[in-house]
Every structure is written in C-alpha cells, then in structure tokens.
Amino acid sequence: DSYKEPFRPQYHFSPAKNWINDPNGLVFHKDKYHMFYQYNPTGNVWGNISWGHAVSDDLLHWSELPIALDAFQAPSGPLTELYFSGSAVVDSGRSSGFGNKGQTPLVAVYTSLYTQDMTLPSNQTVRNGQQSQSIAYSLDDGLTWSEYEGNPVILGPPSAYSDQYQNFRDPFVFWYAAGQHWVMVVSLAQEHRILLYKSSDLKEWTITGDFGSVNAVSGAWECPGLFPLPVDGNDHDIKWVLMVGINPGAVAIPQGSGTQYFIGTFDGSNFTADPGTILSSPVPAHYTVYEDWNKTSFAASSWTPTGDFVGEGPEGGTVLTLWGKSKGDGDGDIGSLTSSNFTITSKYVQFQIGCCSNPAIVGAYGTPQDIETTINLLVSGEVVRSTTGVSGGGITWRSWDVSDLVGQTASIRLIDSSSGGWGHLQVGEIVFTDSPLPQEANWVDWGPDFYAATSWNGLADETRIAIGWMNNWAYGTDIPTSPWRSAMSIPRKLELKNVQGKTQLVQQPQPRLSPLEQGKPLQQRFWKNMSPGNITLPLSVKSVDAELTFHAGKNPKETGISLRQGSDGAAIRVGYDFATAQMFVDRSAETQDVSFSNLFPGIYYAPLSADHDGMVKLRILLDWSSVEVFGGLGESAITAQIFRPDSDLAVSVFSTGDAHSVSLKLYPVGSVW
Ligand code: FRU
Predict the structure, then answer these.
(1) What is the whole-number distance in angstroms between the Cα of residue 585 and the centre of ligand 1?
(2) What are the φ/ψ torsions at residue 163 (nearest 5 degrees)?
(3) Between 262 and which of 87, 242, 372, 494 could a Cys-Cys bridge form, CB atoms 3.0 to 4.6 Å apart?
(4) Is 251 within 8 Å of 636 (Cβ atoms)?
(5) Contact, 501 vs 35, CB < 8 A?
(6) In angstroms, what is the span from residue 179 Cα to ligand 1's centroid?
(7) How far is CA 230 from CA 128, 160, 496, 506, 637, in A?
(8) Ligand 1 center to 323 CA (angstroms)
(9) How many CB atoms sit inside 10 A of residue 557's CB?
(10) What ipTM was predicted for this assembly?
(11) Atom of ligand 1 nearest to the CA of 86
(12) Biggest CA-to-CA distance, the chain
C-alpha cells in the first residue's frame, strides 16, 4: 500500500513523489475541484518549476493528473521559462476567443520566470530573471494546456517600478461581475505593493490600482488574492478581503513565511483597506535609536533630524527622525549625513526608507523616480551594508542582518542618491534589535506552516474556500520526507464575522471530515471540574479530529491537550493560556527528534477570546505530520508541521490551573489514500 511512508499525510494532499510548493490555479469546473501547484517533475527540492495538477470531487480525495505546464516543454526551449504561481478562471463568455463557439476555455494566468535573455515566439524580448505575466488555455476541461502565442500578456511592471522587473509575480485573476471585466491582483514583491489591473479579454491588461505598503512588510510580498464576502452572511454588507503572503517576516517564525490579510472595499479598480485593518508598527521603547548625527556635507539643503513627520507618514504613522529636502536644482544635492561611531551590539538593524507618498508632496516636489535615498553601514570606512530606497511609493521597511558584525565599531551614512529634480528624502528611526521582528498584521494563520494561500474560482459568489502550502520557506526544502516533499493544508471555508466587536476572517475545515470519521467518537469525555494535573487517555492516535471546550476555573492558567506524547513525556501541546488570552501550539519537543533546522522547534500563539458564555473552543486536526487548530468560531488558526517518532502516540489532557466544564470529543480519521 502506498501513502504509508513515515510522516505521509493521510487526509491532506501531498504528491505521490517530488517537491511541491504553492497551490495554483484553483478552479471549480463541471463539479470538480481542480488544484494545480508549483511542482518539480524530477526531484524533491525546489527546481524546474512546472504546474502539477490534481483533481477532486470532495476536496479530500485527490487524483493526480498529467503535468499541466511543463518547464521542460517551454515554447522557447526546455527550462528557458519556469511556471511560477498564478490562478485560473472559467471563461464562460469565451471573452478570450480561445477555442470555438460552444467551447468553454479554462484560462490559467501565471508568472513566467525567464532564465535567459531572449526573444520569445511572440517577438517580445525578455531578460534573464525577468518575471512577466502569461496565460495558457485548456479546451478539454483542464486536462491539457496550450500557451497563448502572444505571451507574455504583461511584460513588466509600470514605468514607475521598471527596476522591479525581477520581482513582479503571482497574478490572481477573477471575474468582476459588477463591472463586467476581469481583474488581476499581482505582487511587486520587494516594494510590498499589490498592483491591480483590468481586462476584457484576459490578453490586454490596464493598470487600475496600487495597494501597499502597510502592516507586515519586512520581506517579499507574494501570492496575493482578492475576493468578496458578506459580513455575518448579510448580502447588503459585502466586504473585500486581500490576502498577501510575506516571506520572510511572518509572525510565527520571523525568518520564515506567512499569510496576512486586509479587509476593505473594491470598486473594480482600487482596493482600499478599512482603517481598522491597518495596524501601526510602534517601535518598542527598549530599542536604541541613534539620533546623534554629524552633518558632513550639504548642497542646496540639508538633512535635518526632526520629528516633523510623526504620525504623518502615508500609512499613518511612523516616527521619522530624519527629514531632508532639496531646493530643486538637481542630482544628489542634499549631500550626505554620517552618524558618529557606535558599537554594534545587536543582531539586526531595522529602518524605514523612502519618500512620503502624500500626493500633494510628491506632486509639488518631483516625480517618484527623481527621489532616492541610500543608507550605508560603515565599518572602518568600508561600506558593509547598503540599501537604496526608491521613493514616491511611501516608506518601506528594510532590515539588515548584522549578526556577523557584533562588537565592531560602525557608523551610518545617509546619502541623497536622487538623479534629478526635487527630492524629499526620509529615513525613519534606525532600530537595533536582537530579533528580526515581524510587524503587526492581521494573520490568516498564526502558525509557521500556512503559506501562499489562495482560493477557488468558480464557486457560488459567497462560497470561498482556500488552501495553503503547509510548509515554510525557513526550512521547507529540508523537512524529513521522501519521496515527496510538502503537503497542502486542509481546505478551509472562509467567512467574515463580527467577533468581539471586530470584523474578522474566520475559517473552518471544509468539507466536514465526517466521511473519514469512522463512526462514533473514539473518546467522549466530560470533566465538571479540573484541577492542576494531567489525565492520560486510554488510547493511541496518529490522525484525529478533536474538539476541546472548557471554561476558566477559580485560578485558571493553561488548559489543553497533549498529542503524540512519548514515554519521556515529550509531546505536541495544544492549549489555551488564560493569562494572555492566547491559544497555542507547542512543538518545542521537536528539538529532541528533529535536526534538520534549528528554526523548526517552537511555540506559536494566536489571540483568542472566550465566547460570550466564557467558553474556549479548540478544534484540532491531527494528521501524521501536521496539526491545525481553529479557535472559537475560527477567528484564529495555527498550522504546524510535526515530525514525531512513530512510537509516540499517547494523548493526555492537561491543566496547569483550574478549568471547569471540560469537554473532549475525539473522532478517528481514516486515510483518503
Ligand atoms: C511563493 C513563491 C512565489 C513564486 C513561487 C515560485 O512561495 O516564491 O512568489 O511564484 O513561489 O515557486
């Protein structure tokens, strides 16, 4: 029997063999859920990126189909083009003109990553490393695909961002019924911006909007998705959700990847986040902020340490300690400013760089391209780190890892590197810190292993089902599985609900796992009062669907369940901390068994309030190498891979304080393979 290797997921999708990453081209068509994914046809590490394909009737049982877009068969030559992430739509109106009357083309929209300078069959020229948007179509319901001969359909980003041609990817396309046109959201990864385009035929695209850069922005923005959902099921209260992947800079592992979201409005052209979903990024007080600047050279104007821009940043509020402006007569005329010497005592430097995107200011003083700031870190007069901020698009957050420089004497220099015109140059507070801090964000999932999440096109308007790559770029290629590497999360139904006075994204596994749950609960227990201690249950489990609910007792601390427990007591702990109102997954026990990455062990927390009756509710899906926890109505989720020894299968309920009305239901889950 296949699919029984160590760590092989039993009810999550994984390919029979080889590497996968992002889910792509999710489309529901003729009663089938199609799922494509980033796939290496020849190995179980990232490479030769193609689109693999699987299909399902129920989102649980999947069959692999032939590779849909094969990098070894790229029209311009084997491996000259890699098929990066994207989406797919059913072109019911045949707006693309593909096929013949009466046929319904499926159209995939993806990023072409070109691996050399060349002229394409369409006569367009591309450079090595360029990322462009392309389309392919299928006339046999998704089985076989042909690339459009006019590819790419978007050669590069708009001129204000032309230097970003290697960081322009992951188009998500959908039909916007209210405007009768297609919409694409696509990422400018290093700028932390999402561009919006529209089209009537999926071939000609016009830019309509630009969103960012806010909330978590310390890594690359990838894999955006945009969709409408009713709030609390009310058709007259439709909001739009923008999901964006970030890598690195996520909440669970700052060196790794994760998924954030914004709630807002969409008018067919622009996405505007509701003010409440834009979170500020206050710099914790204990950081050392060097404000001791020596002015060295000035031309028309000067660098001025100032607090002028407190709260006035384009996205509402970072304290800027420096602010300079030129008198407008040309290149680099603000000169530079060098700090006095200091000793590097922390591992990271974080700062914000750029120019205010306030249109009044940009409009009055120059075009975005004219304005550029460079920040250098100098050790013994040598530039050891350098970052240039292209401005006009707002302030972006950058950071340097300086762990190799701890103990060295250094200074920082700010340079006006603008190439002409007027310039407003800014660098924000320069922060020295020991951890590469993520910024505040609305996280779709607070665990380490839910990335590049995207959702199905082709379902009823209000049905939104998403799935994520259940892995993390911090260690993804090293996880100890073979001959496959990586699985997908459980598919999740997404809804918007008012929870604790705030509109939030809530998610629950979809579909119900009941077809796999073999009959009655394996265990059904109730404890009226639970005092500090552990209760070991008389069973061993490797895959289970559990529901644990409880209330705070007199002196509540932590209450939860230990899974995959060994005779040494080491386990995966899933629980709730009443003191901080957070649920958690603790896989720090993995230190004993997992040597593939020191970033793997850890404890992950998500905010969760008890409901109005004071009940805490945790739904827990355990598979052979993963645990997914949905708290409350699903307003908080934590997804984490686990790699426990096969022998460690015990289950116990724990409480370090008092809890009451503790109820546990454990359903066994069978295999879909
Ligand atoms: C995200 C990502 C995408 C890219 C793909 C390449 O995980 O980096 O941005 O399209 O993977 O495989």
Answers:
(1) 27
(2) -70, -5
(3) 242
(4) no
(5) no
(6) 30
(7) 43, 35, 7, 12, 20
(8) 36
(9) 17
(10) 0.97
(11) 10
(12) 80
Three-state secondary structure call for residue 44: coil
Q: Can you give the pLDDT at residue 217? A: 79
Q: Encoding tokens for residue 346?
A: 């922390």
Q: Among 82, 83, 85, which is best to mutate for testing ligand 1, by the most ligand atoms less than 8 A from CB?
A: 85
| DSSP code of residue 439 | P
Q: How far is the CA of 247 from the centre of ligand 1 (A)?
A: 10
Ligand 1: residue of 38, 83, 188 to mutate (most ligand atoms within 8 A of CB) is 38
Nearest residue to 54 via CA among 85, 16, 90, 19: 16
Q: Does domain 512-668 have CATH number 3.30.70.330?
A: no
Q: Let me know: does 626 contact 564? Beta carbons within 8 Å.
A: no
pLDDT in tens, 107-163: 999 999 999 999 999 999 999 999 999 999 999 999 999 999 999 999 999 988 898
| Ligand 1 pocket: which of 18, 22, 46 to mutate (most atoms within 8 A of CB) | 22
**What's the 209 CA to ligand 1 centre distance in angstroms?**
22
pTM: predicted TM-score of the whole model, two decimal places = 0.82
Report the C-alpha gap between 462 and 230 in whole angstroms: 7
- 18-279+441-497 CATH, one of 3.40.50.2000, 3.55.50.30, 2.115.10.20, 1.10.443.10: 2.115.10.20
Residues of the chain with CATH 2.115.10.20: 18-279+441-497
CATH topology classification for 288-433: Jelly Rolls (2.60.120)
Please give the backbone phi and psi of residue 389, each rounded to the nearest 5 degrees, phi first.
-105, 115
Taking the CA of residue 469 as reference, the ligand 1 atom at the shortest distance is 7
Measuring from each residue's beta carbon to the nearest atom of ligand 1, which residues come in under 6 Å?
A: 21-22, 38, 49, 84-85, 111, 169-170, 222-223, 452
Q: What integer pLDDT is reported at residue 594 of this predicted model? A: 60
**DSSP annotation string for 479-520:** SS--SEE--BPPPEEEEEEEETTEEEEEEEESS-SGGGB-SS
Instruction: Give the pLDDT of residue 24.
Output: 98
Q: Compute, in angstroms, the gap from residue 169 CA to the centroid of ligand 1.
A: 8
CA pair distance 19, 471, nearest whole angstrom: 11
Nearest CA-CA partner of 92 in 355, 589, 345, 457: 457
Q: Which two tokens stand for residue 382?
A: 């040598």
Residue type, 196: L
Cis status, amide bond into 483, omega within 30 of 0: yes
Task: Name the phi and psi angles at 442, rounded to 5.
Answer: -90, 110
363 in Cβ contact with 327 (< 8 Å): no
Determine the atom of ligand 1 nearest the C-alpha atom of 222. Answer: 9
Please tell me the predicted confidence (pLDDT) of residue 358.
Answer: 40
Query: Among residues 22, 370, 416, 586, which one is catalytic?
Result: 22
- Predicted confidence at residue 40, as pLDDT, reads 98
Q: What is the full DSSP assignment across 255-266? A: TS-EEEEEEEEE
Cis peptide leading into residue 152 (ω within 30°) = yes
Which of 635, 260, 603, 274 minimizes the C-alpha distance to 439?
Answer: 260
Q: Which residues pair with 91 in a beta bridge?
A: none
Alpha helices for 257-373 (secondary structure H): 359-365
Closest-CA residue, ligand 1 atom 9, reads 222
Rounded to whole angstroms, the Cα distance separating 375 from 631 reads: 43
Ligand 1 atom, smallest distance to 451 CA: 7
Q: Are 82 and 189 in contact (CB under 8 A)?
A: no
Structure confidence at residue 335 (pLDDT): 65
> Average per-residue pLDDT in the chain?
86
Q: Which atom of ligand 1 is nearest to the CA of 85?
A: 10
Distance, CA of 499 to CA of 504 (rounded, Å): 7
363: helix, strand or coil: helix
The question of whether 22 is a catalytic residue gets the answer yes
